Amino acid sequence: MAASTTSAHPIQSLREQVTALEAAITLCLADPQTKPVHRLRTTTRRIEGQLELLESLPKIPKHGRPARKARRVLKKLRRAAGKVRDIDVQLDLIGEVVPKTKRGELKDDAAKLRLTLQKDRKEFAGQLVEELRRRQSKVTLALESLLSCLEPVEQLSISPTELIQLTEQWFRENRPPDRDGTPDDPDHLHMIRKVAKLARYMAENAPKGAKRARMLAESFEHLQQSGGEWHDWTVLAEISRGRKGNSSALTKALEDRGVTSLRAYQRHLDEMAR
User: Fold this and answer.
1) Statement: residue 102 has pLDDT above 60
2) Please, what is the average pLDDT of the chain?
3) Could you give the dihedral angle defined by the CA atoms of residues 14, 16, 22 and 28, in that order, rounded to the nearest 10 degrees?
4) What is the 3-state secondary structure (H, E, C) of the chain?
């Protein structure tokens, strides 16, 4: 009984994520608002996490060709959704650093940048809808083909211990090596965040009853989120710098948030290393 309530079922989880992706695409085609776009972007990543886990499992039917096709089309959708989602996050960050009660130069700079971002979002949202219309049938065919290949092992289950081992091993093998002398290299830190995100989705195959596996997923989630906050503040500061200059009060405020979030991210990296 214990095994049945704590074991992970990766093929079934993949099928659930495919269904979730189809729903997200439908919602975005109707109206690419914040929540549907976020769900679309996240679900593409979750499916990629499932594919990484499947590659780590023995006795899985050959599925390389449909998996490659699925990855290619998912990547295109994720990038299109990412442009919209990034702006949604940036708009929220501007509101966080510049409250409505604020007055003066900081508020003026924030209002101008917000208008520019809103204009960009409208354009990117239109591009996302066009991309979805162009790729929807290809996505469906690729994922249906993939699931068909995996149907013989539909009931496959793996224990929490095995899931933990596979996820930790995958993270170690795919995490970029530490760089002596350049611990704050943005590309390096960004790559760690992306790898942690996929590791999280792999570990989240475990049901809630598998406490150790869920704790591992939470640790990767914390690392991913702290890295994401640092990245979002840094990118927004760069946008402000390009539009308002280094001396802008808004640019300086965003840079300060970037420094603070970097420290938090590095603490999570140190905790993960221990």
Assistant:
1) no
2) 92
3) -110
4) CHHHHHCECHHHHHHHHHHHHHHHHHHHHHCCCHHHHHHHHHHHHHHHHHHHHHHCCCCCCCCHHHHHHHHHHHHHHHHHHHHHHHHHHHHHHHHHHCCCCCCCHHHHHHHHHHHHHHHHHHHHHHHHHHHHHHHHHHHHHHHHHHHHHHHHHCCCCECHHHHHHHHHHHHHHHCCCCCCCCCCCHHHHHHHHHHHHHHHHHHCCCCCCCHHHHHHHHHHHHHHHHHHHHHHHHHHHHHHHHHHCCCCHHHHHHHHHHHHHHHHHHHHHHHHHC
User: In terms of Cα–Cα distance, which of 152, 194, 129, 138 is closest to 63?
Assistant: 152
Q: What is the dihedral of CA 254, 260, 262, 264, to 10 degrees?
A: -140
Q: Which residues contact 273 (CB under 8 A, 6 or more apart)?
A: none
Q: What residues does 8 pair with on adjacent strands?
A: 158
The CATH number that applies at residue 173 is 1.40.20.10
Two structure tokens written together for 109? 């700079």
Could you tell me how far CA 244 lies from the centroid of its own chain? 29
- Asked if 47 and 20 touch (Cβ cutoff 8 Å), the reply is no
* pLDDT tens for each residue of 106-127: 888 899 999 999 999 999 999 9
- Residue 58, domain extent: 2-273
Tokens found for residue 237: 């500061």
Please determine, for residue 183, whether its predicted confidence score (pLDDT) is greater than 70.
no
At 124, list the tokens: 């990117």
Mean pLDDT for 179-208 is 88
- Residue 207: its pLDDT value, please? 93
